[in-house]
Fold this protein.
Amino acid sequence: MGIQTRQVHLIRRPEGTAQPGDFRVVGATVPALADGQVLVENLWMSVDPYMRRSMSPDATDLEPWPLYKPLDGPSVGRVIESRNSAFTVGDLVESMSGWQEHFVSNAGPFVPYLSPNDSLAIRTAAGAQPKDYVGLLGVAALTAYRGIVHLANINPGDTVVVSSGAGTVGSLACQMAKVRGARVVTSAGSDTKVEWLRNVIKVDHAFNYRSQEIGAALKAACPRGIDVLLENASPEHLCACLPLMNLQKQVLIAGFVGTYNLSSKIGLPENFEYVLDRFLTIQSYPFMDSLDRYDQFVADMLQWRREGRMHLEETVYEGLEQAPHALCALLNGKHIGKTLVRLAA
Ligand SMILES: NC(=O)c1ccc[n+]([C@@H]2O[C@H](COP(=O)([O-])OP(=O)(O)OC[C@H]3O[C@@H](n4cnc5c(N)ncnc54)[C@H](OP(=O)(O)O)[C@@H]3O)[C@@H](O)[C@H]2O)c1
């Protein structure tokens, strides 16, 4: 008889704010392995803002999650049974098969978001803990790395603005920009987050975008204008930055987390003339374009952490049944840094 496991299913598509009641935890029996297959016990799963878009039927850039079926998302686990010569019991593997305690994999090659849910990559970096593969070395971290290390043209002393600075992409991007010698200005949605950005992440300037007018706060914080904007938050934040951009500089858009609970479409910024008048480069980008340099990314992140230059704050929810609460709390801006769910010790 196969072992018993649990999965989280989406049972309705939310209008507006996502709720834990949109999900249900369901029991399932793991089928016996066929030749070539691998059985994985998940240890950690990630919750990420893009998952709110996966809950909607009309996401333009990804497959909507199905109703009443297992969901997908970044996870890391251990092989506990193998009928595939490339995998041994005990191997640590990264996959897109989060939201369940166990899964059977056909063990195809793994590309985050792009490969089937049951594909796998063995992870062995020295100095990395299992949870790092969904945190410090996960998709959000690679997004920050692609933006600040691969795409941004930063000269020492340049002013880099990062929105949603207390989030995962934001906080790591702020630290990477500091590594590159920039002056870093950022914002977040509470005084506690702002204090953390000043004291722990050691940015040059941080402000609370809920209690201060964003344009005025940025103008005061960027007397020499903005050279690179890494946008994570919203069209409003982007609009506030455009008049401050220096000539022929860069706007990199990782995403607009502030819009994911909304059903309305995103239009052009109302002050788009600044893009034309200042000859700005404005670019939205996928983290996947840096996967060919994944090993260098891992080496850099682990080295910067050892040197005390890269810190990821983590909030850990315990147990699969907490995963919907973890996602909804993330979307409500409750936590600093990365939100993770521990599925097994
Ligand atoms: N391009 C890519 O390949 C790629 C890959 C991964 C992620 N991303 C994007 O990168 C951005 C950051 O992702 P992340 O994983 O690091 O998430 P995150 O920043 O950790 O997301 C949580 C934070 O977003 C802010 N937030 C949440 N809801 C909001 C709302 N309604 N309005 C304004 N802010 C809100 C909150 O911070 P405050 O309290 O400070 O508002 C919250 O703490 C997102 O836009 C995401 O879609 C892009």
Notes: The radius of gyration is 20 Å.
